[in-house]
Design brief:
Elements lengths: L9 E3 L2 E11 L2 E8 L2 E11 L3 E9 L3 H13 L4 E5 L3 E13 L7 E10 L15 H21 L21 H25 L3 H16 L1 H5 L2 H15 L17 H5 L7 H15 L21 H31 L5 H21 L3 H14 L1
Antiparallel strand pairs: 1-2, 1-6, 2-5, 3-4, 5-8, 6-7, 7-8
Helix pairs in contact: 2-6, 2-9, 2-11, 3-4, 3-6, 3-8, 3-9, 6-9, 8-9, 9-10, 9-11, 10-11
Length: 382
């Protein structure tokens, strides 16, 4: 095969030319890093460098002036164009510089030196965009898990002589007043859950299921009190269920919302008043034991801690109230994100209220994991 067989007629945007020299700039994009008191550098490879092609070309012949003008126009036209490189073939390039030379010794010839750079394309890194409210749901789930784990670690009714509570034989070693106080705290917590349930109750089947579960646990408290981690999960689930026992449960025909994700995904479309009713019920629970918070319900104060049993009684009560508050805050934050506000002022007021509750709870907790979970929820929420 002859050498000339692999050489193409050069052109740019259809304007033909002949060539005499061809240079190509190739390589890698490398950033050189130097370090104090270190002789060896570090070369950071950032990928292939943009290819540059410099061609020395000319036009001649009877129509050399028209051919010259056509090539000049091709180089000055905005945007990339098709270059037929005599050696490398067709490619999309952008002309960067173009020099034209005409001399009297070569009348009828116009010489060009043109530099091209490969055009490439605008490509952005793929970014995963979370569905509306998804981050809040994840953070709320994290808070629920951290809160229940903290309750399981801090609550106990084991300690002193075996007693019987409420006429039921105990299989646990208890101090009578520690066990009785724990059962009383459980009753108080359940009473507040029922009160919250009453404020959103519209569909009696869902509400009745929650009440029946509460009554079942309350009828035999020792079983629940003896398994703190399971009890924490049960209370958390009951508080979450309150959100969907009322108007949200049957918002669109027979469609039942069972989680805030149903609202974020548009499977149900409640009004602001319906969602706000749930948020306010959960805010009431979020004030459980803290009189300074909106809609707060005050738990009975623990006796002054002066003995190991008294200390455990106080710790149990604090664990109960924190569990209820934190479970309710997880629900309130999700509801506040899901609510269809009618004005920015309405949304800002709700944001500030729930964010304030999250801040207050974060300041009151002594559990580092719960603190981190509350902080993560606040970040996702705001």
């Amino acid at each position: 095969m002859a050498y000339a067989d692999g050489i193409l007629q050069g052109s740019f945007r259809g304007a033909a030319f002949n060539w005499t020299e061809a240079d190509a700039g190739l390589g890698r994009r490398v950033v050189k890093h130097g370090y104090p008191l270190r002789d060896a550098p570090y070369a950071e490879d950032l990928g292939r460098a943009a290819r540059e092609f410099t061609l020395s070309v000319f036009v001649n012949g009877a129509n050399w002036q028209a051919d010259r003008d056509a090539l000049i126009t091709a180089c000055e036209t905005a945007g990339p164009g098709t270059l037929v490189h005599p050696l490398f073939g067709r490619m999309r390039v952008q002309a960067t510089t173009c020099q034209v030379r005409e001399v009297t010794e070569e009348l009828g010839v116009a010489r060009f030196q043109i530099t091209f750079i490969e055009a490439g394309s605008i490509t952005f890194a793929a970014v995963a965009v979370a569905a509306p409210g998804a981050n809040t749901v994840v953070a709320a789930t994290g808070l629920q898990s951290a809160s229940q784990a903290s309750f399981g670690s801090n609550f106990t009714i084991s300690g002193s002589p075996t007693v019987s509570l409420f006429g039921l034989p105990s299989s646990f070693s208890l101090s009578s007043f520690v066990g009785q106080a724990a059962a009383g705290d459980l009753t108080t917590a359940f009473t507040q859950v029922k009160s919250a349930l009453a404020t959103v109750r519209a569909y009696s089947d869902q509400a009745l299921d929650i009440e029946n579960e509460i009554d079942f646990i309350a009828a035999a408290p020792l079983t629940a009190l003896g398994a703190p981690l399971g009890l924490g999960g049960t209370i958390g689930s009951l508080i979450a269920s309150v959100s969907f026992a009322g108007a949200l449960a049957g918002n669109v025909g027979n469609t039942l919302a069972t989680s805030w994700s149903d609202l974020f995904a548009g499977r149900v479309t409640p009004s602001y008043d319906e969602v706000n009713q749930v948020i306010q019920a959960q805010i009431g629970l979020a004030g459980f034991g803290l009189t300074a918070l909106p809609n707060a319900v005050t738990a009975a104060p623990a006796a002054a801690a002066s003995s190991p049993d008294r200390l455990q009684q106080a710790q149990n009560r604090a664990a109960f109230t924190a569990l209820v508050r934190q479970a309710a805050l997880a629900e309130a934050a999700q509801g506040a994100v899901a609510a269809p506000y009618s004005s920015s002022g309405q949304a800002i007021a709700m944001r500030d209220l729930v964010a304030g509750l999250l801040d207050a709870e974060a300041m009151s907790t002594t559990d580092g994991t719960v603190y981190q979970a509350l902080s993560s929820l606040r970040i996702a929420f705001v």
